[in-house]
# Entry
Amino acid sequence: MLLKKFLTVVLTLSVVQVTPAVATRPNDLQRDADRITAVGVTGVLARATSPSGHSRTAVSGVATLDRPARPRADGYFRIGSTNKTLVATVVLQLVGEGRMGLDDTVERWLPGYVRGHGNDGRLITVRQLLQHTAGIYDGNFPGIDTAEQYYERRYDVRTEEELVQAGLSHAPDFAPGTGWQYSNTGYNLVGLVIKAVTGRRWYDEVERRIVRPLGLRHTYWPGSAARIADPHAHGYTRFAAGEPYIDTTELVDADASGGYISTIADLDTFQRALFGGRLLRPAQLREMTRTIAVGGSAAELWPGARYGLGIFSRDLACGGTVWIPSGDQIGYRTRLAVTGDGRRSAVVSMSTQLYDSIDVVFAQDNAARTLLDRAICSS
# Structure
């Protein structure tokens, strides 16, 4: 799940326009990782994979501010809204199997569930939920915008059903299909649709359809556990300028909008498999990559950004399009990038969220984008 302290952190800010030079030296990945820590990030894990399948990794910073140990490249972290790409992949597999349709209404699978305050499941399709065009209000759970709120709410547990009902207690942002607005509530509703179709929870379907077939041995759903498996870099958040770094590693937040924990290697394997045709049939991959322009304030903040089904796209610095199954979670920011053929890819995990100012937010994301673009353009 993405935070809403700034709208600029709700989506993937790595689409801010910068034009990095193409890397040509083996140590460029390390240099670019170091440039991310230079803006105030405590720890960075980076990985880049070429068309030959050769991977390079780099780490920078520290695993914890308590001692000077470097973070480990095989460390775990919260993947945030990269989870949405997993969920969308499950739905598209079900579509390919003929078990449901993208243009099915929510009402078909959850009769009478979406009602009230102007919300109507008879008018909302699964496609709209996946593409953030359903208009469903996006709640701010767990609503952590200060250190005090973190300490008070970090162990709170809420089910997808509770989160959906919280969103449905508000009027929609717009009529279904008439706008674009990022909605974690919408993806929690998709999780309930998956259960209605399969009889299993969304995370069980992710496990049996993606995690196990791809051999992602370091990817897991934490449930109500607040801790992250070892090894891991601690996640830190600076909630405002002049405030100290707060260790926000421990958190219960494992819903369908952003619940999984993984590693840079496993996420790289996933995105390459997805665009390499190992998870979706061609027709369903085409549906995933049918994009629309992001709308509202997002269009001003991310000029040129587009959104498919569970995934962003943007222009690559050296030409062409790159796909971005990225996300944020308290204490962690994850950026992925993969070319449409699945042959060039990169991942960066940053174990810090900086809310000092909008300029600092942009600086962190621009540094991450530079790393991703150099890594892909030079491979």
Summary: The chain has one domain: 7-377. Residues 7-377 form a domain with the Beta-lactamase fold (CATH 3.40.710.10). Residues 117 and 170 are 6 Å apart (CA to CA). The first helix runs from residue 7 to 10.
